[in-house]
Amino acid sequence: MTTPAIAAVAATKRFPGVLANDAVDFTVFAGEVHTILGENGAGKSTLAAMLCGLYQPDEGHVERNGEPTLLRSPRDGLAQGIGMVHQHFRLVDRFTVAENVILGDPDQPRLIDQSVVETRVAEIGERFGLPIDPRARIADLTVGQRQRVEIVKMLYRDAEVLLLDEPTAVLTPKEVEALFITVNAMTAAGKAIVFISHKLGEVMSISDRVTVMRAGRVTGEVATADTDQRHLAELMVGRPVESETRRATAKSGQADVLLECRGLTLSIDGQNAVDDVDITLRRGEILGIAGVAGNGQRPLARLLAGIDGCDAGSVAVNGSSVTNHGPLAARNAGLAFVPEDRLGTGLVPGLSLTDNMLLTRPRKFLVDRKGARREVGQAITDYEIKTPGTEAHARLLSGGNSQKVLLARELASLGTEDGPQVIIVSSPTRGLDIGAAEFVRGLLHEARERGAAVLIISEDLDEVRSLADRVAVLYRGQIALQGRTDDLTIEQIGLAMAGVSADDDVGASPAEVAG
Ligand SMILES: Nc1ncnc2c1ncn2[C@@H]1O[C@H](COP(=O)(O)OP(=O)(O)OP(=O)(O)O)[C@@H](O)[C@H]1O
Ligand SMILES: [Mg+2]
Question: Is residue 398 lining ligand 1, measured as CB closer than 6 Å?
C-alpha cells in the first residue's frame, strides 16, 4: 500500500534584488500533472527548486504527504521521493547510462553489480516507455535520449513526485509525443508530475491543473477542463494577448542570392553528416531548415558559418566564395550566426550582462562600456528581461532570460545599416515566453524586410512554420523535401522528417532548390 504522492510548497524565496517567489502556494497530488506556467523570470524554476531541495525557502516550508519537511539538498529531496529534471541536464558525458543512473545514489552498495543496474534500467524503460541502452555513453546520445536518462534516474530511485523543467523545449514533435506517453504512464502508476512549459497547446493537452505565476506570485490556479489557451495566456501576461502574427509572405521573384551552397558535403566518422546539400537563399527571404535532431543540422550550420571546413562543395555569402576560409571570412562577407548551444558557447556566467554584451564586439582601442551598458538597458526593455540591472551576473538569470540576453547580443546589429546580410539562427524562440518570442519573430521579419536573408534551423515545426517562407527538411544529411511553407502540410513535413520519401504526391516544387 502506498500513500498518495502529495507535495506542496508554501514559501517565499529572495535573491539579491529579486523577490523570486512571493508567498507562493502550490500543491501537487498523486496521479496528476500539475503545470507551472509563467513568463521568463516569473519564478517557476525557483518554485520547483524549493520543492526538490535544491533551494531552501527564506520563509515558509515544503510539505510531503501533508507534513512539513526540511529538504537541505536534492539528495534529501530524492530520499523523500521528490526528483527534478532540470532545464540544463546534469549528466556526466563520459559515463554510461547505467553509471549515471546510480551516480550519487547513497543507497547503492559499495560494490555494484552492473548487470543488476542494467536489468533494472531496462525494466524501467519497458514499464514507462523510456527505451534506452544502459551501456551507451552519454556523449553518444541525442538530447532526447539524455532526457530519458534523467527521468530513468529519478524512477530508479523510486521518485513519486517528478518535476520536469521545460522538458519539451529540447524535443522534436515525435519525442514530445513519446514523453507524454511516459508522463501518462507515470501518473497511471500514481506518481505526481510537475510540468513546466511555455507551449500552451502542450500544457492544455497534458495537464490536469495549471498554476500561473507572474513576477514571483501565483496569479491563478485553474483546471485545464475549465480553461483555454487564450485565458491561460491572459493570466500569464496580465492582459489580453493577441494571437500569433501572421507570417507575411516574401515577394517571389529573382532577388539577389545572398547565401548559396552547392554540393556541400562533410563526413564525420566515415559517414556523411552533410551530404551533397544545395541551398539558395535570396534577399528578403526566410528559409527554415526542419528535421529531427542529429540529421545534420548542427554540422550544416557550422559549415555555412565557416566554423568547420567541408570535404566537398562550396559556400558563397553575398556573391563571394567563403568556402573553407574560416568564420571570420564568413562574418566579413556579411554573415551572422547564432548557434544552438547558447549557454555553452555564448554567455560567460561569471561576467556581468554588460561584459557579456562586449564579448563579441570587434575589439576597439577603447572598450565602449557606456555604449554596451546602453545596449543592455535597451535589450532589457525590448525583451522584457527580468534582472536587477545591467551589472548583474549572467549566471543569476533564469533560463529564458539568458536566452534573451544572447539573442539580444547576436541580433543587436540587425536593425542597423551595416547589419548582417545573412543571418543563420538556431531555434530562435526556444525557451522564450510569448512576449519575447513575438519580439524575436518581429526582429527576424524586420531584418527580412530590410533585405536580409534569414536561415532558421529548428526542430520545432511550429516555430519553423510561423517564421519561414520556405521549408527544407534535412534527413540523414540530405535535403529530403523543400517547398514553400504554404504549399506543405504538417504531415508532408513530418513524413520527410521521418525519412519517408513522398516524392510523388508533394505539391511543392523541388525546382526551387536550384534557384
Ligand atoms: N540563483 C539565483 N541567484 C540570483 N537570482 C536568481 C537565481 N535563480 C533565479 N534568480 C532570479 O529569480 C527570478 C526567477 O527566476 P526563475 O529561474 O525561477 O524563473 P523562471 O520562471 O524559471 O524563468 P524561465 O522561463 O526563463 O526559465 C529571476 O529574476 C532570476 O533572475
Ligand atoms: Mg526556468
Answer: yes
